[in-house]
Design a protein that fits this description.
The complex is a heterodimer. In chain A, helix 5 (about 150-160) runs parallel beside helix 6 (about 175-195). Chain A is globular, with a radius of gyration of 21 Å. The two termini of chain A are about 25 Å apart. By secondary structure, chain A is an alpha/beta fold. Chain A has helices at about 1-25, 60-75, 90-100, 115-120, 150-160, 175-195, 210-220, 235-245, 270-285, 310-325, 355-360; strands spanning about 45-50, 75-80, 105-110, 130, 140-145, 165-170, 200-205, 225-230, 245-250, 265-270, 290-295, 300-305, 335-340, 345. In chain A, strand 8 (about 225-230), helix 8 and strand 9 form a beta-alpha-beta unit. By secondary structure, chain B is mostly helical. In chain B, about 75% of the residues lie in helices and about 0% in strands. Chain B has helices spanning about 1-30, 40-55, 60-85, 90-105, 130-135, 140-160, 160-170, 175-180, 185-210, 220-230, 235-260, 265-285, 285-295. Classes of the chains: A alpha/beta, B mainly alpha. At the A-B interface, helix 1, strand 7, helix 7 and helix 8 of A face helix 1, helix 4, helix 11 and helix 12 of B.
């Protein structure tokens, strides 16, 4: 499989390289001064995607953002992307290729590209690197992320009221803080309306494998879970819930059409606002190293298409919580918070700051099992 | 108890695509041809089957279309590897790459669509038996069909003239040719059968197992089926054992996780592969047995 992926990527890269060398020789001009020039060279922007654009989830959402940015800036930018870039040494090769082809702004859209991008940043000083969901930066590399947990929390409120078995299921991908905090937020949201709720978690150690996602969902449902959420990239969990007569949520993109009966709501990510900002920064020369962590407030996260199955008062509760989060009145990470092995993580009324959130590698009380660690 | 029954049912469903593809590839390889294009054929069939299922509204039509697409796509392999005597391994790999790309392109219009098929089945009478009903008699017809196919293939291989001819072609194409068998024709037929079975497996994935089409959705199952055939020493019932074993360990490790058992999930993810290899390697550990069962001309080109 690895070999196959590698070859796919290689052939894609070679194809792209051939196409570009065929197109002609564009001399890259310094981007900072280009704004005043009468006919500026378009800023070349490249995206590296971990999955296929057609996954209907994570990568699909990124590509929507790319398209919207393209619409906004028109011929001032020129975007391109490479899909199915594995989180391995190949990522470095693909991203290096993007840099050598004159792309001045490169987005790496998965956690696993962090080290490769960090390695490339000093080599290509005139290129700006943007890394999604990571925590490391360099002179010309910055991290951006979305507060997906806000969507997970509001989904949890709905799940906590809709469950009949008081057991929620979570299909998790790869054990990193981003995923662990979504499991926690989902559970906390549910507990806020139903203290009896517990969450079962199954890890598949992959971002995208519809078959495995569906198998994990089946195992959770067989284990008694009746409302599912997933932090994986396809719609398979929702469809499995539909098949087995249970309830579930869409994740990353609006997934209503995949399981109209099972679908309760979709926690979506809208990358467009950030991509527009980042490109604007690069075009105007105001790009600087900072961490952008956007949530409902900035329009990057939302819970949409709440189903008619959800009673009106519950729907209102969810909408109210969304409004509170938007106005900055509510922080998901508010104490008292205990981990599921009884340690106090946040004292009463303490608020978890971004550093706390970025390092969450424990389950809150109510989640079953233990976070798979690499210790 | 009810959980165990559900686990058995899930195992049988999970093993079915591997069994279907494995049985097809077994016939394929018994004729002396290795087709590494399994993954590509499954992807093409998954896309084609989904498209036909979507437009016709019939799962059966979709499955048949998937089988036909797999068989047709395998003809491309036959034309190159058997007709023009290209290297079988390289041709198979090319088929996988081509299939992955073509299916992604052709299936673009179907991303995000869903098919409204019936998802619950039961065998009247038997389905009401406690435990056994849930475990064995509420499955999709394809699950039983895959088992039936295994039986038929095992019988044809061992007991019929057709099976003997096929094995002769795989053992010594020169001798078979000298006797007057159309070696290349038989090989094309065996490869097409392999393609049709892989196609059925692919369409089962996109229409029944996870009823959706997304690029790359077969996710390596073609390669697992290829490996299963080798580890099962080209014996049909061992392929079935391997497929269900793989399915069961996959489901058991998820069930263990759902129960909150504290074993590293990374280790658990590895288990299906490990268990299948260990068990099949153990039952097939006799080298003489491997020599007897492995088609002697496997992977070698033949031109009269």
């Amino acid at each position: 499989m690895w070999k196959l992926r590698r070859m796919l990527v290689l052939s894609a890269v070679m194809g792209a390289a051939l196409a570009l060398t065929g197109c002609g020789k564009e001399e890259p001009k310094p981007a900072a001064k280009a704004a005043e020039a009468p006919k500026p060279e378009p800023l070349k922007v490249a995206f590296a995607y971990v999955g296929p654009v057609g996954d209907g989830g994570w990568t699909f959402a990124h590509d929507l953002g790319r398209k919207e940015a393209e619409k906004e800036f028109g011929d001032r930018i020129k975007t391109s992307f490479v899909e199915n870039v594995p989180e391995s040494a190949d990522a470095e090769r693909v991203i290096r290729d993007m840099a050598t082809q004159g792309n001045k702004l490169i987005f790496g859209t998965t956690f696993g590209y962090m080290e490769p991008m960090l390695k490339l940043a000093p080599e290509f000083k005139d290129v700006k690197f943007e890394h999604a969901t990571g925590y490391k930066s360099a002179e010309n590399m910055r991290a951006y992320d979305v507060r997906a947990y806000e969507g997970a929390y509001v989904a949890g409120i709905i799940a906590g009221k809709m469950t009949k078995t008081n057991t929620l299921g979570f299909v998790a991908s790869i054990p990193i803080p981003e995923v662990v905090r979504n499991i926690n937020a989902f559970t906390l949201g549910a507990q806020s309306v139903n203290p009896k709720v517990k969450t079962k978690v199954v890890w598949i150690n992959k971002w995208f494998d519809p078959g495995k996602e569906s198998e994990a969902a089946t195992a959770l449902i067989n284990g008694g879970a009746d409302v599912l959420l997933q932090n994986t990239d396809s719609s398979a969990v929702l469809q499995t819930a539909e098949k087995m007569g249970k309830l579930a949520f869409g994740w990353d993109s609006d997934m209503t059409s995949y399981g109209p009966k099972a679908h309760l709501a979709s926690a979506i990510i809208n990358w467009a606002p950030y991509y527009k900002k980042a490109i604007k920064d690069a075009l105007s020369g105001t790009w600087k190293v900072e961490t952008n962590w956007w949530g409902m407030k900035e329009g990057a996260i939302d819970l949409v298409s709440i189903s008619d199955r959800v009673p009106a008062d519950l729907k209102k509760m969810a909408e109210d919580k969304k409004a509170e989060i938007k106005e900055g009145k509510f922080n998901v990470w508010t104490g008292p918070m205990t981990s599921n092995d009884g340690k106090e993580m946040l004292a009463k009324d303490a608020q978890g700051d971004d550093k706390f959130i970025a390092g969450i590698m424990f389950y809150v009380r109510g989640v079953e099992g233990k976070v798979p660690s690499n210790k | 108890m009810e959980q165990l029954a559900a686990l058995i049912a899930a195992t049988l469903s999970a093993g079915t695509p591997l069994l279907l593809a494995g049985i097809g590839l077994l016939i394929n390889e018994r004729s002396g041809v290795v087709n590494l294009g399994a993954e590509g054929m499954m992807l093409i069939a998954a896309a084609a089957g989904f498209a036909v299922g979507f437009h016709s509204g019939s799962a059966t039509a979709g499955l048949l279309a998937g089988a036909a697409a797999g068989a047709l796509f395998s003809l491309l392999f036959s034309a190159l590897a058997i007709g023009l005597v290209t290297n079988q391994y390289a041709t198979g790999l090319a088929l996988t790459l081509f299939g992955a790309g073509l299916s992604a392109f052709a299936g673009l219009a179907y991303v995000g669509k869903s098919v409204p098929f019936k998802t619950t089945f039961e065998i009247p009478g038997l389905a009401d038996i406690p435990f056994l009903g849930t475990a064995f008699f509420k499955l999709h017809p394809m699950v039983y069909l895959a088992l039936l196919l295994t039986g038929v293939v095992a019988w044809v291989l061992a007991r019929t003239r057709l099976g003997l001819t096929l094995r002769a072609v795989g053992e010594s194409p020169e001798s078979a040719h000298a006797i007057g068998f159309p070696v290349r024709g038989i090989r094309v037929g065996a490869v097409a059968f392999g393609g049709a079975c892989c196609g059925l497996a692919g369409a089962y994935l996109s229409l029944i197992y996870t009823p959706l089409w997304v690029e790359g959705m077969v996710a390596g199952r073609g390669w697992i089926a290829l490996a299963l055939v080798t580890f099962a020493t080209w014996r049909p019932w061992r392929v079935a054992l391997g497929a269900y074993l793989f399915g069961s360990v996959t489901m058991i490790q998820f069930a263990l996780q759902a129960e909150g058992i504290e074993i590293a999930s990374q280790l658990l993810s590895m288990l299906p592969y490990l268990a299948t290899i260990v068990v099949l390697a153990l039952i097939s550990r006799n080298p003489a047995f491997i020599r007897i069962n492995m088609p002697a001309s496997l992977g070698k080109p033949f031109h009269p």
